[in-house]
């Protein structure tokens, strides 16, 4: 296994570390970051929150801007943040910010030229946790969270794999991608014109049909510029009502799509996950 | 007064705002950021912490990465973060990261070509607080803090203007710039070859001679790559001992020069300043 440490910073008594590794699933070298709380230094395994970032982000945005280390250190939770797409000179890309690199949308692409590398769904579900659980004192008690495109990814991964995640949360998720410009563009490229295949990556469709439940928390800012056209939390809410899904969805007056919103409410999310990871 | 709002984000119930304005002192358009805690929304004046960033930074680094809004919101303190140098196409620059734009060193340059714009000392001491106190519900109860080059700037401003600041703190400051490569290079360019004029911008020299005291808190990571060659906190400590200066200087095992260090200890700094601002 070809894993390289890229950096290491002490943070709130624990350690923030960045790694590169060759991903068999994605056919390229990938980067991820992990925050190991002080409790992991004893060698005891700690539970892990997987964090999926939004469009244009890397492994760094959440680690630097969310203010999450403080609470993770208190609660004894590791945080694992992958990059948002495959990377490298031979990876297909697009000049737009919302397709290609930085915009993997956490799906397994089926269409050329994307299908050779863009398999972020499998990477986050399987390869990354296997690697993390083999390298670090991190247990298989997993929760998952994310922002915007990453909120979509977290919801879809949890909704399709209720046995793998104890809890799921999202900030400002793309709630119904088959029905918004970002989702239509990405799914059309990665999954093709047959929209039937899109449903398995749509949180609102999956939640409406759900029979196995992962406790879910969603926060949404009401001053978010993307709220009406791209995010559509009301459709996720309607889907949860239909299936009786345990979704708590909160709206917050004045908050936008930025990391200032995430930082303002991340403590609540981490405590929510800690409550489920401890069971 | 030509002031333009560039952006506005709700954060922990308060507001992060960015502005540009024409600076008469610096002869160019400048940017700064302010965090207004929820207590400022009532119109009551709140005290202000001025934050000076390090080399290559802008008004954004501290606001995004320090996790300070949470505590400022609790304590009712505004945070005001200027850019680290004059900016603009007609502002003198250097190809190195540690001279010119992003590296103003909080001095008033006396040497061409720098003296036309590089007057960050006067800007932070006078023009910026005058602007902030006229625009926002911010009082003239001021404290000052900073990181690295900004830690140097904060210490120098407080040491030379004990009547203007209630307290001062610094993370990893350049403690004795007349005696380290960063300082010698910048002071040589901005202030000229006559090293006698450098002393008024050297925290260790000023602290050794001090007769008026501003309570001072300094934190330094022991795994900081710049510790021995550039930062030299032991010289600040020796100076404080000589003059009986009220300096608390703490060293922290394993912490480096990054914002992860700042985030880990910013709460302590804000509570320190709040204690002095409340008097």
Task: Give an overview in words.
Two copies of one chain form a homodimer. The first copy, chain A, is of the alpha/beta class and 279 residues long. Chain A is built from nine helices and nine strands. Chain A has a nine-stranded mixed β-sheet, with helices on both faces. Chain A is globular, with a radius of gyration of 17 Å. The first copy, chain A, starts with a strand and ends with a helix. The model of chain A has no long low-confidence stretch (mean pLDDT 97). The interface between A and B is medium-sized, with 22 and 22 residues.
Brief description of this entry?
The structure is a homodimer of 279-residue chains. Chain A is 34% helix and 24% strand.
Sheet-strand content of chain A, in percent, reads 15-25%
Strand line-up of the largest beta sheet of chain A = 1-2-3-5-4-6-7-8-9
Distance between the termini of chain A: 33 Å
Q: What structural class should be given to the helix and strand makeup of chain A?
A: alpha/beta
Number of strands of chain A: 9
Outline the biggest β-sheet of chain A. 9 strands, mixed
Radius of gyration of chain A: 17 Å
The quaternary state of the protein chains shown equals homodimer
Shape of chain A from CA axes? globular
Q: Identify low-pLDDT runs of chain A.
A: none
Largest interface: A-B, 22 and 22 residues
Number of helices of chain A: 9
Which series of helices and strands of chain A comes N to C?
A: EEEEHHEHEHEHHEHHEH
Helix content of chain A: 25-40%
Mean pLDDT of chain A equals 97
């Amino acid at each position: 296994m070809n894993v390289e440490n890229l950096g290491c910073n002490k943070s709130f008594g624990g350690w923030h570390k960045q790694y590169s590794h060759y991903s068999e699933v994605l056919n390229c070298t990938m980067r991820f970051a992990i925050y190991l709380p002080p409790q992991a230094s004893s060698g005891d395994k700690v539970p892990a929150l997987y964090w999926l970032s939004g469009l244009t982000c890397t492994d760094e945005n959440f680690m630097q801007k969310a203010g999450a280390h403080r609470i993770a250190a208190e609660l004894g939770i590791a945080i694992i943040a992958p990059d948002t797409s495959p990377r490298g000179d031979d990876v297909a890309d697009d000049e737009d910010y919302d397709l290609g690199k930085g915009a993997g949308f956490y799906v397994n692409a089926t269409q050329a030229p994307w299908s050779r590398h863009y398999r972020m769904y499998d990477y986050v579900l399987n390869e990354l946790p296997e690697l993390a659980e083999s390298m670090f004192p991190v247990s298989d008690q997993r929760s998952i969270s994310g922002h915007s495109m990453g909120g979509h990814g977290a919801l879809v991964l949890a909704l399709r794999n209720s046995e793998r995640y104890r809890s799921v949360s999202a900030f400002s998720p793309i709630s119904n991608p088959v029905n918004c410009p970002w989702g239509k563009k990405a799914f059309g490229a990665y999954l093709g014109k047959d929209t039937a295949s899109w449903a398995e990556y749509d949180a609102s469709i999956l939640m409406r049909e759900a029979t196995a439940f992962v406790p879910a928390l969603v926060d949404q800012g009401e001053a978010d510029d993307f709220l009406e056209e791209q995010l559509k939390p009301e459709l996720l809410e309607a889907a949860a009502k239909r299936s009786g899904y345990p979704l708590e969805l909160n709206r917050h007056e004045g908050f936008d799509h930025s990391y200032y919103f995430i930082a303002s409410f991340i403590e609540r999310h981490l405590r929510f996950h800690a409550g489920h990871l401890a069971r």
